[in-house]
Amino acid sequence: MYDYLVVGSGLFGATFAYEAAQRGKRVKVIEKRDHIAGNIYTHEVDGIQVHQYGAHIFHTSNKEVWDYIQQFAEFNRYTNSPVANYNGEMYNLPFNMNTFNKLWGVKTPAEAVAKIEEQKKAANLSGEPKNLEEQAISLIGTDIYEKLIKGYTEKQWGKKATELPAFIIRRLPVRLTYDNNYFNDTYQGIPIGGYTQIVEKMLASDLIDVETGVDFFDNKDEYIKEYPKIIFTGMIDQFFNYELGELEYRSLHFETEEMDVDNYQGNAVVNYTDAETPYTRVIEHKHFEYGKGDKDKTIVTREYPANWSRGDEPYYPMNDAKNNELYKQYKKLAETVPSVMFGGRLGQYRYYDMHQVIHAALTTISQEFDK
Ligand code: FDA
Protein backbone atom coordinates (compact mmCIF):
# COMPACT_ATOMS: atom_id res chain seq x y z
CA MET A 1 0.00 0.00 0.00
CA TYR A 2 1.36 3.41 -0.97
CA ASP A 3 1.13 6.58 1.09
CA TYR A 4 1.46 8.90 -1.92
CA LEU A 5 0.90 8.94 -5.63
CA VAL A 6 3.18 11.46 -7.35
CA VAL A 7 2.00 12.42 -10.83
CA GLY A 8 5.00 13.60 -12.87
CA SER A 9 8.67 12.75 -12.41
CA GLY A 10 10.02 16.28 -12.96
CA LEU A 11 12.06 18.10 -10.35
CA PHE A 12 9.04 18.89 -8.17
CA GLY A 13 7.66 15.36 -8.13
CA ALA A 14 11.10 13.80 -7.65
CA THR A 15 12.04 16.12 -4.77
CA PHE A 16 8.73 15.39 -3.06
CA ALA A 17 9.09 11.62 -3.57
CA TYR A 18 12.68 11.64 -2.28
CA GLU A 19 11.81 13.58 0.87
CA ALA A 20 8.71 11.48 1.57
CA ALA A 21 10.76 8.26 1.26
CA GLN A 22 13.38 9.75 3.59
CA ARG A 23 10.53 9.97 6.12
CA GLY A 24 9.67 6.29 5.65
CA LYS A 25 6.70 6.80 3.31
CA ARG A 26 5.91 4.56 0.33
CA VAL A 27 5.55 6.45 -2.93
CA LYS A 28 4.32 5.54 -6.38
CA VAL A 29 5.46 7.86 -9.20
CA ILE A 30 3.70 7.84 -12.57
CA GLU A 31 5.04 9.70 -15.60
CA LYS A 32 3.36 10.04 -18.96
CA ARG A 33 6.58 10.49 -20.94
CA ASP A 34 8.79 7.49 -21.65
CA HIS A 35 11.54 8.88 -19.41
CA ILE A 36 11.88 10.47 -15.97
CA ALA A 37 13.10 13.99 -15.07
CA GLY A 38 10.53 16.18 -16.87
CA ASN A 39 12.02 19.13 -18.67
CA ILE A 40 15.43 18.83 -17.04
CA TYR A 41 15.97 15.50 -18.82
CA THR A 42 19.42 15.13 -20.41
CA HIS A 43 20.89 12.16 -22.25
CA GLU A 44 24.30 11.40 -23.73
CA VAL A 45 25.11 11.46 -27.46
CA ASP A 46 28.72 11.33 -28.73
CA GLY A 47 29.94 11.87 -25.15
CA ILE A 48 27.88 15.08 -24.93
CA GLN A 49 24.99 15.65 -22.48
CA VAL A 50 22.06 16.81 -24.61
CA HIS A 51 19.51 19.07 -22.87
CA GLN A 52 16.48 17.63 -24.64
CA TYR A 53 14.05 20.36 -23.55
CA GLY A 54 16.26 23.42 -23.95
CA ALA A 55 19.26 24.91 -22.14
CA HIS A 56 19.16 24.30 -18.40
CA ILE A 57 21.58 26.28 -16.26
CA PHE A 58 21.27 25.91 -12.51
CA HIS A 59 21.58 29.25 -10.70
CA THR A 60 20.52 30.40 -7.27
CA SER A 61 21.40 32.68 -4.40
CA ASN A 62 19.68 30.34 -1.97
CA LYS A 63 22.50 28.52 -0.16
CA GLU A 64 20.13 25.93 1.28
CA VAL A 65 18.93 24.94 -2.22
CA TRP A 66 22.48 24.99 -3.62
CA ASP A 67 23.72 22.69 -0.84
CA TYR A 68 20.67 20.48 -1.32
CA ILE A 69 21.21 19.86 -5.04
CA GLN A 70 24.92 19.07 -4.50
CA GLN A 71 23.89 15.83 -2.75
CA PHE A 72 22.82 14.45 -6.10
CA ALA A 73 25.57 15.66 -8.47
CA GLU A 74 28.84 17.49 -8.67
CA PHE A 75 28.50 20.81 -10.49
CA ASN A 76 31.00 22.48 -12.81
CA ARG A 77 31.69 26.22 -12.81
CA TYR A 78 29.73 26.99 -15.99
CA THR A 79 28.80 30.66 -16.26
CA ASN A 80 26.00 31.54 -18.63
CA SER A 81 27.22 34.22 -21.05
CA PRO A 82 24.92 34.09 -24.07
CA VAL A 83 25.66 35.97 -27.26
CA ALA A 84 23.07 37.71 -29.46
CA ASN A 85 23.17 37.38 -33.23
CA TYR A 86 21.34 40.28 -34.90
CA ASN A 87 21.56 39.77 -38.66
CA GLY A 88 25.15 38.56 -38.28
CA GLU A 89 26.23 41.26 -35.79
CA MET A 90 27.31 39.61 -32.55
CA TYR A 91 26.63 41.25 -29.17
CA ASN A 92 27.34 40.14 -25.62
CA LEU A 93 24.45 39.65 -23.21
CA PRO A 94 23.21 40.68 -20.74
CA PHE A 95 23.42 44.35 -21.80
CA ASN A 96 26.79 45.37 -20.42
CA MET A 97 29.85 47.48 -21.26
CA ASN A 98 30.92 44.94 -23.94
CA THR A 99 27.50 45.36 -25.62
CA PHE A 100 27.60 49.18 -25.37
CA ASN A 101 31.16 49.34 -26.68
CA LYS A 102 30.26 47.22 -29.71
CA LEU A 103 27.08 49.22 -30.38
CA TRP A 104 28.31 52.76 -29.87
CA GLY A 105 32.09 52.65 -29.34
CA VAL A 106 31.67 54.03 -25.79
CA LYS A 107 34.41 53.01 -23.35
CA THR A 108 33.37 54.15 -19.89
CA PRO A 109 30.18 53.64 -17.81
CA ALA A 110 29.56 57.43 -17.85
CA GLU A 111 29.65 57.46 -21.66
CA ALA A 112 27.27 54.47 -21.80
CA VAL A 113 24.78 56.09 -19.40
CA ALA A 114 24.91 59.35 -21.40
CA LYS A 115 24.18 57.46 -24.63
CA ILE A 116 21.23 55.55 -23.12
CA GLU A 117 19.79 58.79 -21.68
CA GLU A 118 20.22 60.56 -25.03
CA GLN A 119 18.27 57.75 -26.78
CA LYS A 120 15.52 57.68 -24.18
CA LYS A 121 15.08 61.46 -24.56
CA ALA A 122 15.06 61.32 -28.37
CA ALA A 123 12.23 58.74 -28.26
CA ASN A 124 10.12 61.52 -26.73
CA LEU A 125 7.83 59.26 -24.71
CA SER A 126 5.58 60.73 -22.05
CA GLY A 127 3.33 59.28 -19.37
CA GLU A 128 3.12 55.65 -18.32
CA PRO A 129 4.42 53.19 -20.96
CA LYS A 130 1.36 51.76 -22.75
CA ASN A 131 2.98 48.59 -24.07
CA LEU A 132 6.16 46.55 -24.05
CA GLU A 133 7.76 48.63 -26.81
CA GLU A 134 7.32 51.88 -24.91
CA GLN A 135 8.43 50.27 -21.68
CA ALA A 136 11.64 48.88 -23.22
CA ILE A 137 12.53 52.15 -24.96
CA SER A 138 11.86 54.13 -21.80
CA LEU A 139 14.30 51.87 -19.95
CA ILE A 140 17.12 51.40 -22.47
CA GLY A 141 16.61 53.53 -25.61
CA THR A 142 15.95 52.61 -29.22
CA ASP A 143 19.16 50.89 -30.45
CA ILE A 144 19.12 48.07 -27.91
CA TYR A 145 15.36 47.75 -28.21
CA GLU A 146 15.44 47.50 -32.03
CA LYS A 147 18.43 45.15 -32.27
CA LEU A 148 18.30 42.99 -29.16
CA ILE A 149 14.77 43.03 -27.71
CA LYS A 150 12.06 43.59 -30.33
CA GLY A 151 12.49 40.61 -32.70
CA TYR A 152 13.34 38.13 -29.96
CA THR A 153 10.41 39.13 -27.74
CA GLU A 154 7.90 39.16 -30.61
CA LYS A 155 8.99 35.64 -31.64
CA GLN A 156 8.92 34.43 -28.05
CA TRP A 157 5.34 35.61 -27.40
CA GLY A 158 3.94 35.39 -30.94
CA LYS A 159 2.65 38.99 -30.67
CA LYS A 160 3.80 42.50 -31.69
CA ALA A 161 5.66 44.36 -28.96
CA THR A 162 3.04 47.11 -29.22
CA GLU A 163 0.37 44.51 -28.35
CA LEU A 164 2.25 43.07 -25.39
CA PRO A 165 1.69 44.52 -21.91
CA ALA A 166 4.41 46.76 -20.46
CA PHE A 167 4.69 44.76 -17.24
CA ILE A 168 6.43 41.85 -19.02
CA ILE A 169 9.55 44.01 -18.86
CA ARG A 170 9.56 45.54 -15.42
CA ARG A 171 13.30 46.00 -15.35
CA LEU A 172 16.03 45.44 -17.86
CA PRO A 173 19.32 44.38 -16.40
CA VAL A 174 21.90 46.94 -17.48
CA ARG A 175 25.33 46.20 -16.24
CA LEU A 176 27.86 49.00 -16.31
CA THR A 177 30.82 46.62 -16.12
CA TYR A 178 32.57 44.45 -18.71
CA ASP A 179 30.88 41.34 -17.29
CA ASN A 180 29.05 38.87 -19.54
CA ASN A 181 27.70 36.71 -16.69
CA TYR A 182 23.96 36.54 -17.41
CA PHE A 183 22.84 35.78 -13.87
CA ASN A 184 23.43 37.84 -10.74
CA ASP A 185 23.13 34.79 -8.50
CA THR A 186 25.80 33.71 -6.03
CA TYR A 187 25.87 30.10 -7.27
CA GLN A 188 25.74 28.76 -10.82
CA GLY A 189 26.76 25.63 -12.71
CA ILE A 190 25.84 22.53 -14.70
CA PRO A 191 25.82 19.04 -13.14
CA ILE A 192 28.77 17.07 -14.49
CA GLY A 193 27.22 14.10 -16.28
CA GLY A 194 23.84 15.82 -16.78
CA TYR A 195 20.58 16.38 -14.91
CA THR A 196 18.89 13.00 -15.31
CA GLN A 197 21.22 11.40 -12.73
CA ILE A 198 19.84 13.87 -10.13
CA VAL A 199 16.29 12.59 -10.59
CA GLU A 200 17.51 8.98 -10.83
CA LYS A 201 19.18 9.33 -7.43
CA MET A 202 16.12 11.05 -5.97
CA LEU A 203 13.91 8.17 -7.07
CA ALA A 204 16.33 5.35 -6.21
CA SER A 205 14.86 4.46 -2.79
CA ASP A 206 13.29 1.01 -2.29
CA LEU A 207 10.25 2.84 -0.98
CA ILE A 208 9.66 4.47 -4.38
CA ASP A 209 8.22 2.73 -7.46
CA VAL A 210 8.30 4.52 -10.80
CA GLU A 211 6.26 3.80 -13.90
CA THR A 212 6.84 5.75 -17.12
CA GLY A 213 4.46 5.91 -20.08
CA VAL A 214 1.44 6.22 -17.74
CA ASP A 215 -1.01 9.10 -18.03
CA PHE A 216 -2.92 10.00 -14.87
CA PHE A 217 -6.00 10.93 -16.91
CA ASP A 218 -6.38 7.40 -18.24
CA ASN A 219 -7.45 6.32 -14.73
CA LYS A 220 -8.08 9.50 -12.78
CA ASP A 221 -11.07 8.33 -10.74
CA GLU A 222 -9.40 5.05 -9.70
CA TYR A 223 -6.22 6.86 -8.62
CA ILE A 224 -8.23 9.29 -6.51
CA LYS A 225 -10.08 6.41 -4.85
CA GLU A 226 -7.01 4.25 -4.36
CA TYR A 227 -4.40 6.71 -3.03
CA PRO A 228 -4.79 8.56 0.27
CA LYS A 229 -2.73 11.51 -1.06
CA ILE A 230 -1.80 12.66 -4.54
CA ILE A 231 0.91 15.14 -5.56
CA PHE A 232 -0.13 16.37 -8.99
CA THR A 233 2.47 18.20 -11.12
CA GLY A 234 0.57 18.24 -14.42
CA MET A 235 -1.73 21.04 -15.64
CA ILE A 236 -4.16 22.19 -12.95
CA ASP A 237 -6.82 23.21 -15.51
CA GLN A 238 -6.66 19.76 -17.13
CA PHE A 239 -7.09 18.13 -13.69
CA PHE A 240 -10.46 19.89 -13.43
CA ASN A 241 -11.34 19.07 -17.03
CA TYR A 242 -11.00 22.80 -17.93
CA GLU A 243 -14.31 23.44 -16.19
CA LEU A 244 -13.48 27.11 -15.46
CA GLY A 245 -11.85 27.63 -18.87
CA GLU A 246 -8.42 27.06 -20.37
CA LEU A 247 -5.23 28.55 -18.96
CA GLU A 248 -2.88 29.72 -21.71
CA TYR A 249 0.60 28.36 -22.30
CA ARG A 250 3.39 28.95 -24.77
CA SER A 251 4.88 25.94 -26.47
CA LEU A 252 8.23 25.24 -28.13
CA HIS A 253 9.51 23.08 -30.89
CA PHE A 254 13.08 21.75 -30.76
CA GLU A 255 15.11 20.70 -33.78
CA THR A 256 18.31 18.84 -32.92
CA GLU A 257 21.15 18.13 -35.35
CA GLU A 258 24.38 16.17 -35.02
CA MET A 259 27.23 17.84 -36.94
CA ASP A 260 30.63 16.52 -37.97
CA VAL A 261 32.54 19.50 -36.59
CA ASP A 262 34.24 20.06 -33.25
CA ASN A 263 32.88 23.54 -32.57
CA TYR A 264 29.93 25.02 -34.46
CA GLN A 265 29.17 28.36 -32.82
CA GLY A 266 31.81 28.87 -30.13
CA ASN A 267 29.28 29.29 -27.33
CA ALA A 268 26.61 27.21 -25.55
CA VAL A 269 23.79 29.71 -26.20
CA VAL A 270 23.31 32.09 -29.13
CA ASN A 271 20.09 34.15 -29.22
CA TYR A 272 18.77 35.17 -32.64
CA THR A 273 17.27 38.59 -32.04
CA ASP A 274 16.12 39.52 -35.55
CA ALA A 275 12.48 39.00 -36.55
CA GLU A 276 13.19 36.96 -39.71
CA THR A 277 15.09 33.97 -38.24
CA PRO A 278 12.25 31.70 -37.07
CA TYR A 279 14.08 30.31 -34.04
CA THR A 280 15.01 32.25 -30.91
CA ARG A 281 18.02 30.29 -29.69
CA VAL A 282 20.64 27.85 -30.86
CA ILE A 283 22.18 25.68 -28.18
CA GLU A 284 25.50 23.86 -28.69
CA HIS A 285 25.38 21.33 -25.90
CA LYS A 286 29.06 20.42 -25.57
CA HIS A 287 29.92 23.94 -24.36
CA PHE A 288 27.97 23.34 -21.13
CA GLU A 289 30.66 20.89 -20.04
CA TYR A 290 34.33 21.64 -20.54
CA GLY A 291 36.38 19.28 -22.65
CA LYS A 292 33.58 16.70 -22.97
CA GLY A 293 32.41 15.03 -26.15
CA ASP A 294 33.98 13.61 -29.29
CA LYS A 295 36.44 15.95 -30.99
CA ASP A 296 34.87 15.75 -34.45
CA LYS A 297 31.19 15.84 -33.40
CA THR A 298 28.84 18.39 -31.96
CA ILE A 299 25.10 18.49 -31.18
CA VAL A 300 23.12 21.64 -31.88
CA THR A 301 19.46 22.40 -31.03
CA ARG A 302 17.36 25.18 -32.53
CA GLU A 303 14.49 26.39 -30.35
CA TYR A 304 11.31 27.60 -32.10
CA PRO A 305 8.58 29.27 -30.06
CA ALA A 306 5.11 27.95 -30.87
CA ASN A 307 1.48 28.60 -30.05
CA TRP A 308 -0.05 26.14 -27.64
CA SER A 309 -3.28 24.25 -28.03
CA ARG A 310 -4.56 21.17 -26.18
CA GLY A 311 -2.27 18.21 -26.70
CA ASP A 312 0.89 20.33 -27.22
CA GLU A 313 3.63 20.49 -24.57
CA PRO A 314 2.87 23.42 -22.26
CA TYR A 315 6.38 24.80 -21.71
CA TYR A 316 5.65 28.28 -20.39
CA PRO A 317 2.65 29.44 -18.37
CA MET A 318 1.45 32.83 -19.68
CA ASN A 319 1.37 34.69 -16.38
CA ASP A 320 -0.57 37.77 -17.46
CA ALA A 321 -3.36 39.30 -15.38
CA LYS A 322 -6.15 37.35 -17.11
CA ASN A 323 -4.50 33.93 -16.70
CA ASN A 324 -3.34 34.64 -13.16
CA GLU A 325 -6.93 35.48 -12.23
CA LEU A 326 -8.19 32.22 -13.77
CA TYR A 327 -5.45 30.29 -11.97
CA LYS A 328 -6.62 31.83 -8.67
CA GLN A 329 -10.06 30.37 -9.32
CA TYR A 330 -8.58 26.92 -10.05
CA LYS A 331 -6.56 27.22 -6.84
CA LYS A 332 -9.79 27.83 -4.95
CA LEU A 333 -11.39 24.85 -6.67
CA ALA A 334 -8.39 22.75 -5.59
CA GLU A 335 -9.41 23.34 -1.96
CA THR A 336 -12.44 21.12 -2.65
CA VAL A 337 -10.10 18.13 -3.19
CA PRO A 338 -7.88 18.25 -0.07
CA SER A 339 -6.31 14.84 -0.82
CA VAL A 340 -4.61 16.34 -3.90
CA MET A 341 -1.66 18.75 -3.65
CA PHE A 342 -0.76 20.69 -6.78
CA GLY A 343 2.92 21.39 -7.35
CA GLY A 344 5.49 22.60 -9.84
CA ARG A 345 5.39 24.71 -12.94
CA LEU A 346 2.10 23.32 -14.29
CA GLY A 347 0.35 22.46 -11.03
CA GLN A 348 0.99 25.94 -9.60
CA TYR A 349 0.93 27.71 -13.00
CA ARG A 350 4.13 29.67 -12.40
CA TYR A 351 7.28 30.11 -14.37
CA TYR A 352 9.55 28.45 -11.83
CA ASP A 353 13.28 28.07 -12.33
CA MET A 354 14.84 24.86 -11.01
CA HIS A 355 15.98 26.34 -7.70
CA GLN A 356 12.47 27.73 -7.12
CA VAL A 357 10.91 24.33 -7.86
CA ILE A 358 13.16 22.67 -5.28
CA HIS A 359 12.33 25.37 -2.76
CA ALA A 360 8.58 24.99 -3.48
CA ALA A 361 8.76 21.18 -3.15
CA LEU A 362 10.63 21.45 0.16
CA THR A 363 8.02 23.92 1.39
CA THR A 364 5.23 21.46 0.47
CA ILE A 365 7.14 18.73 2.31
CA SER A 366 7.42 20.78 5.46
CA GLN A 367 3.71 21.72 5.27
CA GLU A 368 2.92 18.02 4.97
CA PHE A 369 5.24 16.62 7.62
CA ASP A 370 6.01 19.39 10.13
CA LYS A 371 2.40 19.99 11.14
P1 FDA B 1 8.20 19.39 -15.33
O1 FDA B 1 7.38 19.85 -16.49
O2 FDA B 1 9.67 19.28 -15.53
O3 FDA B 1 7.65 17.99 -14.83
C1 FDA B 1 6.29 17.66 -14.85
C2 FDA B 1 6.19 16.21 -15.27
O4 FDA B 1 4.85 15.77 -15.14
C3 FDA B 1 6.57 16.02 -16.74
O5 FDA B 1 7.55 15.01 -16.84
C4 FDA B 1 5.26 15.59 -17.40
O6 FDA B 1 5.45 14.69 -18.48
C5 FDA B 1 4.54 14.93 -16.23
N1 FDA B 1 3.08 14.93 -16.38
C6 FDA B 1 2.29 15.97 -16.72
N2 FDA B 1 1.00 15.58 -16.81
C7 FDA B 1 0.99 14.25 -16.51
C8 FDA B 1 -0.05 13.29 -16.45
N3 FDA B 1 -1.32 13.60 -16.74
N4 FDA B 1 0.27 12.02 -16.12
C9 FDA B 1 1.56 11.66 -15.87
N5 FDA B 1 2.58 12.55 -15.92
C10 FDA B 1 2.30 13.82 -16.23
N6 FDA B 1 15.23 26.58 -15.10
C11 FDA B 1 16.42 27.00 -14.61
O7 FDA B 1 16.59 27.07 -13.40
N7 FDA B 1 17.45 27.30 -15.47
C12 FDA B 1 17.32 27.22 -16.83
O8 FDA B 1 18.27 27.52 -17.55
C13 FDA B 1 16.05 26.80 -17.35
N8 FDA B 1 15.88 26.69 -18.68
C14 FDA B 1 14.65 26.31 -19.19
C15 FDA B 1 14.48 26.22 -20.57
C16 FDA B 1 13.25 25.84 -21.10
C17 FDA B 1 13.08 25.79 -22.59
C18 FDA B 1 12.16 25.54 -20.22
C19 FDA B 1 10.83 25.15 -20.77
C20 FDA B 1 12.34 25.59 -18.85
C21 FDA B 1 13.58 25.99 -18.32
N9 FDA B 1 13.80 26.04 -16.94
C22 FDA B 1 15.02 26.48 -16.45
C23 FDA B 1 12.71 25.69 -15.98
C24 FDA B 1 12.78 24.24 -15.53
O9 FDA B 1 12.62 23.39 -16.64
C25 FDA B 1 11.66 24.01 -14.50
O10 FDA B 1 11.90 24.81 -13.37
C26 FDA B 1 11.51 22.56 -14.00
O11 FDA B 1 11.74 21.60 -14.99
C27 FDA B 1 10.09 22.40 -13.50
O12 FDA B 1 9.92 21.13 -12.90
P2 FDA B 1 8.45 20.57 -12.67
O13 FDA B 1 8.58 19.29 -11.95
O14 FDA B 1 7.60 21.62 -12.07
O15 FDA B 1 7.84 20.39 -14.15
Automatic annotation (TrEMBL):
Source organism (scientific name): Paucilactobacillus oligofermentans DSM 15707 = LMG 22743
Flavoprotein recorded as keyword: yes
GO MF entry, a single one: flavin adenine dinucleotide binding
Protein's name in the database: UDP-galactopyranose mutase
Residues of the UDP-galactopyranose mutase C-terminal domain: 147-351
InterPro entries for this protein: UDP-GALP_mutase (IPR004379), UDP-GalPyranose_mutase_C (IPR015899)
Similarity comment: family membership: Belongs to the UDP-galactopyranose/dTDP-fucopyranose mutase family.
GO CC aspect terms: cytosol
PANTHER family: UDP-GALACTOPYRANOSE MUTASE
Keywords: FAD, Flavoprotein, Isomerase
Cofactor dependence: FAD
